[in-house]
Amino acid sequence: MKTNLIRIISMAAFAGLLTACGTTSGTTEQQVQQPVIELDALQMLGPVADYPDVESGRFDNGKMWTFEYPPVDYFMEAYNLEVTDEWLEKARLATVRLPNCTGSFISGAGLIMTNHHCGREQVSQVSAPGEDLLDNGFYAVNLSDERAVEGFYVDQLVDVRDITEDIREFTSETGSEDEEAMSLDVAIHMIESQIREELGDEDESLEIQIVGLYNGGRYSAYTYRRYTDVRLVMAPELELGYYGGDPDNFTFPRYNLDMTFFRAYDEDGTPLESDYFFNWSEEGASDGEPVFVVGNPGSTSRLMTVSQLEYRRDVAEPALLEFLDSRIRVLNTFTDLNPEAALERDTRNTIFGLQNALKAYTGMHKGLLDDRIMGRRLHAQNMFRDELAKNPETNEQYGGLIDQMDNVQDALRMSADGYIAFFALSPGNQYSSSILQRAVYGSIYAQNLSNGVPAEALQGLRNQLMRIQNKPDELELLLLEAGLQSISKHMGDDPAIGAYLARNDDIGELAAMIVTETRLNSPDTFDELLNENFGDLDDAAMELTKAILPAITSYQQNQRAMGSEASELAEELGVARFEVYGTAVPPDATFSLRLADGVVRGYDYNGTTAPYFTTFYGLYDRYHSHNREFPWDLPARWLDIPAEFDLSTPLNIVSTNDIIGGNSGSPLLNSDLEVVGLIFDGNIESLPGDYIYTDETARSVSVDVRGMRESLRHIYRADRILREIET
């Protein structure tokens, strides 16, 4: 499944707008305090819902196994596969993490395989004036033709270790939250120093990431070697790399050549030499064969309680879907109004990402509306309660956590309208009005100053505000209008907001007036105006801000308080789950390296059966069946194919592996760790996989290794790549 964008938007959706008053680094207690909803004032919810009486499955929480807790016994039980330390080491070191996806080494000279959609921005970035490599494709005939991608990098996981006990040792005796945070910082610093010493990293060239697993129930240290000289080697045309566009996205049968190749170079500017890489299988994979995905799944929500999922179903997902639909329309309109500016901002790729997210979250939301899925989650939750109750000690310590989480979700619902109305309104967010961002957060900054908070304590917020970039005039107006429409729809009943909006019946005219008359559409002017009197400015944008700021502040205070409470409860529940189940249940995805097992298998859908693979014959059938029109058209080189090109070659393949956004570009491997495919998507039935894993009809979709080889050999004439892979 594609989508670093999904992962980013997901974090925005569930974090809310927690960059509100009081969250900047170093802020003091002198800030104005807003009342928050007290949990004690809420009644218990009682039964969460009347869901069907269904049983949960053994792997409902998924198969995203960590490398520090590999399921060695289970792999032997399920596949008669002996997983050795050498097997795991090769799987780990031959895989790399991109900023947004996964990749893998497929030669000893640093050649990297990943998805086309993972490298779209980089392909556009290295296009020279007059070139359009995204549409026309690219192949470096010689090594010297490979194009360096500035700012791009890949990370190789060279060390992973469980550091839970080290963390606990430093934080168990602390008192306040501030003391615990300080102890945690000290612990992390000491652990990092120890790891660098053990690995001989005197120059601190390694990247060390501390990852909380099981919602903080366990902690691991992941150490990466970063390669910053990465060059583009080959990319097919967009028409092939994104064949079928948004209509075919998250579907199967599928006909997509979603592949791209980069190369990592060492510090001397020569191709990276590596002993760890995956060979390509000659035969590919067959029906029922065990296959394995090594990659970096972005985030899942499988350890959420049922009430948390219900909040997502009723509040968070509808807000996100409304937002995505709105912004896609905004960007399409902007592209029509100013195509040159849209091209400069790479708006097409942004729209692709938003459309991908909209389709993905629509599928996720549909799953949350499925009572049988929710019933399985409720059954699993009740089994967890029963396990806790078996031990008086664990029951006393953890038994009430789920009910407390229910109450927190009930409190969050009280500000649901604000959640939707003020979605994505944060400093620097590219999907909301820059003028409105400056007005709202400039007012928050001024309010803190006037309440005695020292300017140095607010410097972090001021820096954020100064980084807000202007948008093209057409885009700024469209985004402000979209924001006002949402505020009117969801917060129009608020007396102050309603009175302000009543001044003008036309939201579009109101937005145009603000954009025309405000002084906040210039970073330099904004910098001059930003002081403790900012909130008293006589300005068109400030009139709007005065009407909405009380509602925003109240909403954010409640979200921050309840969000903090939910995080603490989630961590305690994570500890409890680990005590009950140990590593038999994998933790949620964290965009860190995981190993997922599955089998190649078709499935029943739409009254028929989907085969486990498709061929190039199907690609051309789809081309002709859709009258050779976008997004099913084909570039010229694919319309004059050589006689030796075998149309019966498998192009895409499906398997039951557990994936999520971030797994894009992951290698699909057989038991001998040979490449049989390249993960690029999931089918529509897999989208509820964010919160439950099933394998009845949910499938991961890969480019078949045989299809990649056939197209490289006969269509792109990429002999140099093939020689390197097959050596």
Protein described:
- The chain is α+β, with helices and mostly antiparallel strands and 727 residues long.
- Helices cover 45% and strands 14% of the residues.
- It is built from 26 helices and 20 strands.
- Strands 2, 3, 4, 5, 6, 7, 8, 9, 10 and 11 form a ten-stranded antiparallel beta sheet that branches. Strands 1-13-12-18-19-20-17-16 form an eight-stranded antiparallel beta sheet.
Topology:
Elements: H1 4-15, E1 65-66, H2 72-79, H3 85-93, E2 95-97, E3 102-105, E4 111-114, H4 116-125, H5 133-136, E5 138-139, E6 147-148, E7 154-162, H6 164-171, H7 177-199, E8 207-213, E9 218-227, E10 229-235, H8 238-241, H9 245-248, E11 260-265, E12 290-295, H10 306-337, H11 339-344, H12 347-368, H13 371-389, H14 392-398, H15 401-413, H16 416-421, H17 434-450, H18 459-466, H19 473-491, H20 495-501, H21 507-517, H22 523-529, H23 540-581, E13 594-599, E14 603-605, E15 608-610, E16 613-615, H24 616-625, E17 650-655, E18 667-669, E19 675-682, E20 700-704, H25 705-714, H26 719-726
Antiparallel strand pairs: 1-13, 2-3, 2-7, 3-4, 4-11, 5-10, 6-10, 7-9, 8-9, 10-11, 12-13, 12-18, 14-15, 16-17, 17-20, 18-19, 19-20
Helix pairs in contact: 1-10, 6-7, 10-12, 10-15, 10-19, 15-23, 17-23, 19-21, 20-23
